[in-house]
Write a structure and sequence with these properties.
- There is one protein chain.
- The protein folds into 3 domains: 89 residues, no CATH class; 179 residues, Butyryl-CoA Dehydrogenase, subunit A, domain 2; 287 residues, Butyryl-CoA Dehydrogenase, subunit A, domain 3.
- Helices cover 54% and strands 8% of the residues.
- Strands 1, 2, 3, 5, 6 and 9 form a 6-stranded mixed beta sheet that branches. The chain has a 3-stranded antiparallel beta sheet with strand order 4-8-7, with no helix packed on it.
- Strand 5 and strand 6 form a beta hairpin.
């Protein structure tokens, strides 16, 4: 059905005002007019099939229904591609756009359970199977007589490939390999299509012969009966659960209980095990992930950020109460200051929170993508805060109006309210004082940055007005710099408030706690100094040597805080039931909890999903 609605007149006007030939650029992007024509023809042909149409948008479906819809779409899509290949007598390469490009995304939406069959299973057979093995397997794979996937990542081992725990031990008496999952963390975790779609799998495992480990090697393993699709004996298989996205990919887990496969099922293009051989050896333990300084860099700043924003928020609340009391007596002097500060604090704190959650998610690797980690949910909540109750850019511009006025007042010799008093001090002494690599010195540097940015904004607005612009047009042209000035002002406020409030707070704490709280302040201030080095170089007298010292100081603080990282998080005292995260539970039994949550998936309630009989089996047998 074509959309009969007229084009929005504003949008049409933008198109009419375009200065170049849009089609010419399209041809350039596609690689020529003929390529564009071929792409458009292919898109029209594929979309005419209607596979992309959803009577009920998949976002409203249950998790189980999303998977079944994904299987249906994938089977119909590949059936269509087969037909087009036969009609046009072309290879699969002509349909890469249908599978992997924007067209594929439009059709398959939230991912496809057959993707790994084409992008990992078949290419691995082509790259690592011997000629004899390719003759045996590739035809069946290309015809989709079997559906495969690729299982390397484990529940406890992602990037650390050497630490994979799944074992493949050669038994010379039977000429078989025995695949085994010795621990929960050795379960394969993440492969697309593994849970309910694939019936074969290339498994990466540690090869043992003659009592010696030879490192990781690939093996082809049958997972399910080709006729009934039931898991074979010793195969423990299921779905890992809901994720932030890609919920149609059918990511699965896989464990082996002494599963035997023929010797010929080891992919033997690059290495092979001869018929006569024996048994076993243990691996080095994987380093604790928090020992990596990059992880400390990602995570510990988050702890400091909580305290910085909490204390800044408390200071703001006290100011609000004071200003409210002044309002009751008719004193309105500090109301604009309160408004300006609350605007930029809301913008900076919500943006920092969103970035912090995303850093935490990325630091958890793939597990952070799981809904059971609660990080996707948290990210959805905190990013929403960047736009509700005032969009952050608009709020920064509100603050900027106050800052511009404050600068003009300072130039006129007028007294300024407390949170912008630094503007008067900086503007009075034009020359930048010598840099001090101390907390107070860094805070002073941030105040010079904020004042310098405000001054430049005022100068640019005035310059544009002199060139004939109205004030509002000059403001709009300067608005990118104005938002940066607001952020710099807020950054200076948070740093100074966190430092001063903590100095007062630690007077009543034990020496041990005092030391840790002051280390967190130092970390936070030095972190932001390193994040804003460009601004400091521009507006202060900081030197390259000073920056090198800041970097060393920061890394030293990470080492000092590392020992207390867990204790600092425990101190937030968030109950497991409230945090609701498999990764953040007090007992730290991450892998057991991930598996427990995975087993709650409705897809794991039955060994064979009905979509196998409705779509997958007829597709594999050419009867769809």
């Amino acid at each position: 059905m074509t959309d009969s609605r007229k084009v929005n007149p504003d949008l049409q006007r933008e198109r009419d005002n375009c200065t170049f030939d849009v089609t010419e650029l399209t041809y350039l992007i596609d690689g020529g007019a003929q390529k564009t024509e071929e792409r458009r023809k292919r898109e029209e042909m594929v979309l005419k099939e209607g596979i992309h149409i959803e009577e009920v948008p998949s976002v409203y479906l249950s998790h189980k229904d999303k998977y079944e819809l994904a299987v249906k779409k994938a089977c119909y899509l590949f059936k269509m591609i087969r037909r087009l290949q036969e009609e046009e007598n072309t290879g699969m390469e002509n349909y890469q756009e249908v599978l992997g490009g924007s067209l594929g995304s439009a059709i398959l939406g939230d991912g496809s359970p057959l993707t790994l069959h084409y992008v990992m299973f078949i290419p691995t057979l082509m790259g690592q199977a011997s000629v004899e093995q390719q003759v045996h397997w590739l035809g069946r794979a290309f015809n989709c007589d079997i559906i495969g996937t690729y299982a390397q990542t484990e529940l406890g081992h992602g990037t650390f490939i050497r630490g994979l725990e799944t074992t493949a031990t050669y038994d010379p008496s039977t000429k078989e390999f025995v695949l085994h999952s010795p621990t929960l963390t050795s379960y394969k975790w993440w492969p697309g299509g593994l849970a309910h779609t694939a019936n074969y799998c290339i498994v990466v495992a540690q090869l043992y012969t003659n009592g010696k480990c030879h490192g990781i090697h690939p093996f082809i393993v049958q997972l399910r009966d080709e006729e009934t699709h039931m898991p074979l004996p010793g195969i423990k298989i299921g779905e890992i659960g809901a994720k932030l996205g890609m919920n149609g990919t059918n990511n699965g887990f896989l464990g082996f209980d002494k599963v035997r496969i023929p010797r010929e099922y080891m992919l033997m293009k690059n290495s092979k095990v001869l018929e006569t051989s024996s048994l076993v050896q243990v691996h080095e333990p994987e380093p604790q992930i928090l020992e990596y300084v990059t992880q400390q860099h990602k995570l510990i700043i988050g702890i400091a950020t909580v305290h910085a924003l909490r204390l800044s928020g408390s200071w703001m609340w006290n100011m609000y109460n004071n200003v409210t009391a002044e309002l009751e007596s008719g004193d309105l002097d500090r109301l604009p200051e309160l408004h300006a500060l609350s605007c930029c604090l809301k913008a900076v704190s919500t943006a920092d929170a969103a970035e912090c959650v995303e850093r935490c998610r990325l630091s958890c690797g793939g597990h952070g993508y799981m809904m059971s980690s609660s990080l996707p949910l948290m990210y959805g909540l905190v990013t929403a805060a960047c736009t509700y109750e005032g969009e952050n850019t608009v709020l920064h511009l509100q603050t900027a109006r106050y800052l511009v006025k404050a600068w003009q007042q300072a130039m006129g010799g007028h007294a300024l309210t407390p949170t912008v008093a630094y503007i008067g001090k900086v503007s009075a002494g034009r020359r930048s004082p010598p840099w001090e690599n101390t907390i107070q010195g860094i805070i002073g540097g941030f105040q010079r940055v904020a004042a310098g940015k405000i001054a430049q904004c005022v100068a640019n607005i005035e310059k544009r007005q002199k060139n004939g612009m109205t004030y509002e047009d000059a403001w709009n042209m300067t608005s990118v710099q104005l938002t940066a000035a607001s952020e710099a002002h807020c950054r200076a406020f948070i740093l100074s408030t966190y430092f001063e409030e903590t100095e007062n707070l630690v007077k009543a704490t034990s020496p041990a706690l005092r030391q840790v709280l002051l280390q967190l302040v130092d970390l936070y201030v030095v972190f932001w100094a390193l994040q804003r080095v460009g601004d400091l170089l521009r507006f202060t007298s900081i030197s390259e040597r000073d920056i090198e010292q800041l970097q060393a100081w920061y890394e030293d603080l990470l080492i000092k805080l590392r020992v207390n990282a867990v204790g600092l998080v425990d101190a937030f005292d968030i109950k497991d039931e409230i945090l609701n995260s498999a990764l953040g539970a007090y007992d730290g039994r991450v892998y057991e909890r991930l598996m427990d949550e995975a087993m709650k998936s409705p897809l794991n309630a039955e060994p064979v999903n009905e979509s196998f009989h409705k779509y997958l089996k007829p597709f594999m047998q050419g009867k769809l």
